[in-house]
């Protein structure tokens, strides 16, 4: 297994997508608000998602130089979005936000892992 990404571009792109997601979630735009309400995630815990995504983005960037860190962060992002998929399915919230945002980010994170480490 490769402990340093084979290219800096995939982890950097995933980190950028996560930071953009954080920026849109600080004062959630309507589609993010609808998504979080759709899975019945309590508003008082929305801040925790921002922390998770910022730490994941930092891990992806630092992991370009620190062996194993980008792999761990990338794996964590995949786990995060797998949990989001489960939450959407359990809540029967499988509208466009589920297909575009949730599965889109899961696909991006999975492609990043494959492109960078396998």
TrEMBL record:
<feature type="transmembrane region" description="Helical">
    <location>
        <begin position="45"/>
        <end position="65"/>
    </location>
</feature>
<dbReference type="InterPro" id="IPR032808">
    <property type="entry name" value="DoxX"/>
</dbReference>
<feature type="transmembrane region" description="Helical">
    <location>
        <begin position="12"/>
        <end position="33"/>
    </location>
</feature>
<keyword id="KW-0472">Membrane</keyword>
<dbReference type="Pfam" id="PF13564">
    <property type="entry name" value="DoxX_2"/>
</dbReference>
<feature type="transmembrane region" description="Helical">
    <location>
        <begin position="71"/>
        <end position="91"/>
    </location>
</feature>
<keyword id="KW-0812">Transmembrane</keyword>
<feature type="transmembrane region" description="Helical">
    <location>
        <begin position="98"/>
        <end position="117"/>
    </location>
</feature>
<keyword id="KW-1133">Transmembrane helix</keyword>
<protein>
    <recommendedName>
        <fullName>DoxX family protein</fullName>
    </recommendedName>
</protein>
